[in-house]
Amino acid sequence: LATQLMSRVRSHFGVEVALKGLFERPTVAGLAALISSAAQQEIPKIVAVPRVTEDGTAVTGFPLSYAQERLWFIDQLEPGSANYNIPKAVSIHGALEVSQLEQAFNEIVARHENLRTIFPSQDGTAQQVVLSEQAFRL
């Protein structure tokens, strides 16, 4: 709830307030004073990473983030381990429209590149490759 509040403060007032500030000023008056004193900052837009270089060549791979690199390294030590997966079971009651569920998952996969990203290794170094499409089938 605290992070949601900070997100709403950021979008409504256009100021960046540290989450710590909310806990240091737990009243509405304290939060109002914090917002008033916060420096106005322009929130940077999220910009897509260029997929084509200046000479028109398609970019196929991107370097891994430190977190991705760490997980990739651990996977090299224990290939196929599910240690970093978070399993969740869901019960569905009533009739299931498999085609609609597939369509919903495909929309999510199409929208989020991280669900279409693979990490091939070349010469012992991994890179991110975002697939243009990845069909989800049940």
What does this structure look like?
- β2 and β3 (125-126) form a beta hairpin.
- The strands form two sheets. A two-stranded antiparallel ribbon has the order 1-4.
- The protein is mainly alpha-helical and 138 residues long.
- The chain is built from five helices and four strands.
- 39% of the residues lie in helices and 6% in strands.
Low-pLDDT runs of 5+ residues are none
Count of alpha/pi helices: 5
Strand order of the largest sheet: 1-4
Listing every helix as H and every strand as E from the N terminus to the C terminus, the arrangement reads: HHHHHEEEE
- Oligomeric state as shown: single chain
* Portion in strands: 5-15%
Average pLDDT works out at 85
Instruction: Please identify the structural class as seen in this structure.
Output: mainly alpha
Using only CA atoms, what is the Rg?
Answer: 22 Å
Major sheet: size, sense and barrel closure? 2 strands, antiparallel
Number of β-strand runs: 4
User: What's the helical proportion of residues?
Assistant: 25-40%
Compute the separation of the termini in Å.
Answer: 34 Å
Q: Any idea what the shape is?
A: extended
